[in-house]
Specification:
Elements: H1 3-10, H2 14-22, E1 29-30, E2 36-37, H3 41-54, H4 59-63, H5 66-71, H6 80-120
Antiparallel strand pairs: 1-2
């Protein structure tokens, strides 16, 4: 199938598919006229890529284990669990940081409202 067909079947833009190709995540066959030709398995590959992108992984991280998860169950790919643990730790740090920012903003707003209340009386 051509790149436009793959985009239509997966709901992924042609631009994203070209990016996945540049990252080595999908590999089309080049025809003599230069057109990309994708196998029917490319649909599953793109859907798998999207799954991992939605988990917050980068294309570089996905490239490290994509071949394995396409051939075996995810549980049998040794690269996956350490990456998941690392990503979860990163998210936990971000949550702590965001909670601190939220607290700071709440305190600033309370301070401003308190000053406004004092100025009006």
């Amino acid at each position: 199938m051509k790149i436009g067909e793959l985009a239509q079947q997966t709901g992924v833009s042609v631009r994203s598919l070209r990016y996945y190709e540049s990252q080595g995540l999908i590999v089309p066959i080049r025809q003599a006229n230069g057109y990309r030709e994708y196998s029917p398995l490319a649909v599953e590959t793109v859907e798998t890529i999207r799954l991992y992108l939605n988990l917050g992984l980068s294309t570089e991280e996905i490239a490290g284990f994509l071949h394995c998860v396409l051939k075996k169950k995810e549980a049998f790919c040794s690269e996956v669990m350490p990456l998941y643990r690392s990503k979860l730790e990163e998210i936990e740090r971000q949550i702590v940081q965001l909670n601190q920012i939220k607290l700071n903003l709440t305190q600033r707003m309370a301070s401003i409202l308190e000053e406004l209340g004092e100025g009006e009386t």
